[in-house]
Amino acid sequence: MSEPIVIVGAGIGGLSCALALAHRGHAVRVMERATQLEEIGAGLQLSPNACHCLRQIGTLEQVESAATAPNNIHVRSGRSGRTVTRLPLNPYLPGLYGAPYLVVHRADLQSALLAACLNHPSVDIHYGHAFASREPRSEGLERASFTTSSGTVAFDTPLLIGADGVWSAVRKTIPGAAEVAFSGRTAYRATLPADQIPAAEMQDTGLWLGSEAHLVHYPLQNGTAFNLVALIKEDWNEETWSAPVSRQTFLKTFKRWSPAARTLLEKPDTWLKWALCGVEARAPWGVDRTLLMGDAAHGMLPFAAQGAAMAIEDGAVLAHLATRHLDAPDTLRQSYETARQERVAKVQALARSNGEIYHLSGPLALARDTFMRVAGAKNLLRRQDWIYRWQPPAL
């Protein structure tokens, strides 16, 4: 078909999908609501399954140049500060799976994907275009309309892809699609210069486990920055889904934590608080010639560190299937849901389970820590083998 495929959203999922499609010979229009791309969030983790996809679309080398490859996940008790276990990451995982485990600033990953899109002749990016509506066309196309500062524009496309995040406007046009649900968890995020952090904390990803809360941190931007994320089980009473919070208010949750953990938590002057919302994966992902991907299809808790990876995987699979079934939208939709829904739902379930395990207290926390020590680090990592060994369909 001569009309380009249209992707709504120039985030990590949308841009990686655009590149995957372009590498398979498709013309792509990426429609972004913002007038320019800005940094949203802070750090994220890219396991080998995601890195295989980035390598296939030609962006892994650039991402690696801005990322950090931590040695281990250093798991500690939030209350005592004692080490529970160290899970090996690099070079252990590359030896098993043929790709690294990276931590990267979201803006650096997005910049690498954007640069590759801008350099590809088959990808066209439009800013300041907010998705408004869609309608099927009798010629086997979908018409997607967008609101701009000067009015409304419309494009005909053989495939409309909603990659517009957990609050997806495209998802609202799909009958039976899942609703956004608040998880009962919040995330507090802050980023600091590396010179404010002890050198020992700059080598690993840190995971501190505590009652009703846990802390994750890791180095970013080639070790020049440090990302902290505190995740808490609590209600949400703000008028928006993100809000700044003072250090004094935030630290009350961690008053019984170890001095080492509190020293890290006290360093940022302010934190940005986010409500963690999810989208159930086992719901329709499409209708007509419209499909969802990434958080628009399956927003998940970050407790398995797979949100970005699942969006990147979606893009690789969707590009592969679109190349085979673009002229048969029902087959494309069914094949896509069959290929992705169960895997993503399983990751969602793992993330929920991890959240419960991380937040245990009393005798159950003691039993958890004892099990993690006795089981052995490499045996614990095998829980993730089914995630990490996944690779994208060949080009």
From TrEMBL:
Matches recorded under InterPro entries: FAD-bd, FAD-dep_Monooxygenase_BioMet, FAD/NAD-bd_sf
SUPFAM superfamilies attached to this UniProt entry = FAD-linked reductases, C-terminal domain (SSF54373), FAD/NAD(P)-binding domain (SSF51905)
Q: Which UniProt keywords apply?
A: FAD, Flavoprotein, Monooxygenase, Oxidoreductase
FAD-binding domain boundaries: 5-348
- Identify which cofactors the protein needs according to its UniProt entry: FAD
**Pfam families, alphabetically?**
FAD_binding_3
Record-level Gene Ontology MF annotations: FAD binding; monooxygenase activity
| Name listed for the protein in its UniProt record | FAD-dependent monooxygenase
Q: Which organism is it from?
A: Roseibium limicola
List the lineage, top down.
Answer: Bacteria, Pseudomonadati, Pseudomonadota, Alphaproteobacteria, Hyphomicrobiales
